Amino acid sequence: MSLNALTSANILVVDDQSDNVQTMTRYLEEASESYDLLTASNGKIAYNVAQKLLPDLIITDWDMPQMNGLQLTQALKQTPLTKDIPILLITGVYTTTENLKAALDAGAFDYVRKPIQKVELWARVKSVLSLMYSYKTIKLQHQEIERKNRLIKEQKDRELNTKILELHQKTQILRTIQERLEKIDIKEKASASKEVTKIVRYIDNSLDLENEWQNFKNYFEKVHPRFFTLLQEKYPRLTTEDLRYCAYVKTHMSNKEIANLLNINTESVRTHKYRLKKKLGLPKNVELKDFINQLIV
Q1: Within 10 Å of residue 271's Cβ, how many Cβ atoms?
Q2: Residue 215, C-beta contacts closer than 8 angstroms, at least 6 positions apart
Q3: Cis amide leading into 55 (omega within 30)
Q4: What angle do CA 26, 31, 35 make, to 5 degrees?
Q5: pLDDT value for 189
Q6: The dihedral of CA 279, 282, 287, 293: what is its sign?
Q7: Is the CB of residue 103 less than 8 Å from the CB of residue 111?
Q8: How far is CA 221 from CA 147, 156, 217, 251, in A?
Q9: Model confidence, pTM
Q10: Where are the extended beta strands (E) located within the chain?
Q11: Low-confidence ranges of the chain (pLDDT < 70)
């Protein structure tokens, strides 16, 4: 609903008494705002109309046959498509404090007592529409903020994946160099033993698994602070390999990408995933990626 739509909102008027419908529609037509009016003669018809046309406001009588106003309110609030439509209940019979509490508990936004006063009806309708406009505006702003935050997070995860791949490629290169040095002819190696020893020692230090894991954690936790700490607190039985796998899943890596990083086949990745789900106590119908993403924001 835009700001201009406040003066041209779609309003559904519901009452089984035609003279009551005529009175309310006449009052609303006389308002300074130009409302688009719909009518229904009972709750069941109103429910179907609401599903199809999604009015901005529903004004309904309480005391009606087939489906009364309270039942209509409850039905609409239990339906995802119409649960946010505000409802004004009109009542001339159910006017006790308990009745009005029941109406509000059922999801009615407000109520109007009979006999209906034109000015009061105008005020209540305008107030409800204004509040709903403010609510929808805030909701849209919140959704936009969430969307931008999600895009920023996704960008950071892409950068993180790039960094993880760089670390992996560095490790692979160092391993290759190490293997080639170890194949150097003994005589050649003896003539340059000091230099070769230094290179091998440097590579050994660079290939230290603990050091590699720590570098990985440092990069990862810049994007997802306390991810590993919180996982270990909740599930102390997780191994370093388990935590690494959870981190890969958190950054939306595919099984193929994880297999390449861990130098294993995709079937081994799926097996590890199955074992990890058992450690976490997850039912078969719960995806590991969904669980990890919901566990830690």
Answers
A1: 12
A2: 167
A3: no
A4: 80
A5: 54
A6: negative
A7: yes
A8: 22, 11, 6, 12
A9: 0.50
A10: 10-14, 36-40, 57-61, 87-91, 110-113
A11: 1-7, 95, 165-169, 171, 173-174, 184-197, 200-213, 296-297
Q: What is the DSSP letter of 110?
A: E
CA distance 75 to 101: 17
Phi and psi at residue 13, in whole multiples of 5°? -105, 125
Phi and psi at residue 26, in whole multiples of 5°? -65, -45
SS3 37: strand
Residue 229's pLDDT is what? 87
Angstrom distance (rounded) from CA 213 to CA 166: 14
| Per-residue pLDDT at 77 | 94
At 57 the three-state DSSP class reads: strand
Query: Are 53 and 61 in contact, with CB atoms under 8 Å apart?
Result: no
CA 243, 248, 252, 256 torsion: positive or negative? negative
* Partners of residue 58 on adjacent β-strands: 12, 87
Q: How far apart are CA 134 and CA 4, in angstroms?
A: 13
- The amino acid sitting at 112 is V
Distance CA 289, CA 272 (A): 13
Q: Cα–Cα distances in Å, from 184 out to 192, 199, 205?
A: 10, 13, 20
**Rounded to the nearest 5 degrees, what angle is found at the Cα of 201, between the Cα atoms of 200 and 203?**
65
CA–CA distances in Å: residue 20 to residues 26, 160, 218: 10, 65, 70
Task: Show contacts of 271-275: CB within 8 Å, 24+ apart.
Answer: 272/241, 272/245, 273/245
- Phi, psi (deg, nearest 5) at residue 125: -65, -45
At 206, which amino acid appears?
S
> CA–CA distance from 203 to each of 11, 178, 180, 198 (Å)?
75, 7, 12, 9
The DSSP call for residue 9 is: -
Tokens representing 71 are: 């039942």
Give which of 79, 15, 8, 21 is closest to 50, Cα–Cα.
79
